Structures
1.
Amino acid sequence: MEMIWIDGVTYMNYGDEWMAFSSDDDMIDPWGYAPDDMVTDDSQRIGTETVNGYRSVHYRATGMGLALAGELRQADYWVSTEYDVVVRGIVQWISTVGDESGEWNMQWDVTDINEPITITAPEGVDKPGLPDDVPLMPGASNVSSMMGFTNFEIDATAAEVTEFYMQALEDNGWTFESSMIETMHSFSKEGRSLTLMIDDESTPTTVTIMIGEG
């Protein structure tokens, strides 16, 4: 898994596809780097080692109550003596679902502390939101985008969302095509298609806009 935060936008990749969504500053949680979150009173001190270029104390826990779906086997953490930051963590646990079980291993590393770094967005991934000719409804929140889909929440009724986009899309050159149901409408423009879907049974209302070719 790879995550990049830039100016309120989170880019996330699980290996095959990048997605982008808006994020608040408090989403950048230091979990995994603060020793108090990882090292408990029953952790065993193994020794002092250099990890990722930082002199660190190695701790091991076998009974820590982590929020993992299974039985914790072992957790090792290396805490920088200079910065008091976990620079490496390795967690091993066993997960059982029904008659099936599996062993899991997770490792993360901190390689640079207080060093200059240039963070760039992944190539070919648009920021969350909509193209210039599809306005975002005022008051929208929790905007996320992935593979041609944009989702957001809004404190408005389905009728209010429909009224806004009927006018806004017409003003931006889109042609209304049809309404399959009262909360699903289709539009077209210069070889592109747009589908507006509104879930007014949720609170707040959830809106999905899908834009594609043809």
2.
Amino acid sequence: MRHKDQDHWQNTSNRPPSEAGPFTTTYVALYSLNSFGTPQQQERIAARTEQVRGWLTKSPAKDNEDRVFRLLALKTAGAADSDVAAATNELLAKQREDGGWAQLDSGEPALALESDAYATGSALVALHEAGNLATIDPAYQKGLAYLLKGQLGDGSWHVVSRSKPFQPYYESGFPHGKDQFISCAASAWATWALVLAVEN
């Protein structure tokens, strides 16, 4: 398996927020092993999961993306309830007064200090799916109110990109020009968070 000599999986690019840290990569790898592993691979998958679970419990998150995917990965890896609860509370504590979450904490570049739909949608999904936060919980409802307030007339959410462009501009057809790819991801997270609330 890739990175089998390490206790987690490393990201291979630096395009924040979704391709900038090992927690996201590790969660995706764990999810893939759990979802697509064959019966013959289960013993190896279990050993690898145990190894990664140790890394997850001892490694601190540095930003919202890390907190979201550390929580999801802890749940996927079968971590102790106390570890999942601690990660849930850590993420929940970062909710802003406006109801949203920001990609980066205070002291980071000013661009990322404001709440946005990407950070908020992903936080709500992780809190519900891995942290068992009910969609009727006041914190979840406050997050939904933030998302609904920020939704644009075309149904999308606009988030400003903070990745440094290194490829020629490509027009996908999604709104928001050079910010279209982070805005597309943000709109997906926000929609998922809203759908979870509708189901209840």
3.
Amino acid sequence: MKKQKINLTIGWLYPDLMSTYGDRGNISCLTKRCEWRGIEAGVLRINTDTKLEKLEKLDLIFGGGAQDRQQEIVMRDLKGSKGKIIKGLTEKGIPALFVCSYRI
């Protein structure tokens, strides 16, 4: 029997703004653990200009931490449709790991 190939899309929230605490290492760890299990994991870097339809394809959501200034920029962006979509995904059972504080 042929083994089914598993693909996983990890959404990395605002990596250019919210990566103060070594969050790149968390993404590296997640993708490496997937690789060890034969799961092909891609990372979608979600920023202020990310198209909303791309969010619907996420299988896991990761958000790192940052200083107050960067958090304010992110929170302004999440107050719109993007935040509603991400909240809806977590309510549907899409796993999420948030380091620091997020209010969606």
